[in-house]
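Human: If only I could read backbone structure tokens as easily as an amino acid sequence. Take your time, and here it is.
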Amino acid sequence: MSSLRAVLVHTREVPNEEKGFALLALDRVVGSVVRVVDGGAVGFPTGVRRRVEPWRGKYQYLADDLLTVPQQMWTPGSVVLLLTSVDIYTRGMNYIFGLATRGAAVISSARIHPSFWEALPEMSRYLPEDKQFFAQQLGKVVVHEFGHTVGLPHCERWDCVMRFSNSPFELYRKGSTFCSDCWMRLLRLVHDLAV
């Protein structure tokens, strides 16, 4: 195992169960090559820009502003992931599941659960899904954004967790682990980042 640490912090409104799902997913997929750490809770930062999302009339928060939290917590030999339950977006996108740069990421659980999409008839087949289904989908987003924090780009393979997800359908269909090419790249990147 390398000395690279993957630190997961969460905003206070995130249920402990969701934090647990995220930690388990990280540990299951990358725990053999990085040390997964629970970084605890942080307050929701002030000054985060927001907008009213027209479909539901609720606030969405600019992920780029939220990303400053894990960026400020970053230390050499670590990557920091911030989990929140507020809806997020970035410029040019109606919504996103997560956003990452080298060393830091923000992940939102808001649109991952099928119940968010219950007004869409095509989502009805996913609505009866249980906590295990939600945990698996949240895990995909957390692992995907972790990949970006160490430098992995998007992958074209449908079975790879690094596949870009532009909708819940794409998220639900893609794989939950790295394809062999991305895994080999990840091992090299983690090795290079470890202190």
In short: The chain has a mean pLDDT of 90. The beta strands are 5-11, 35-42, 50-53, 58-62, 78-84, 88-89, 98-101, 104-108.
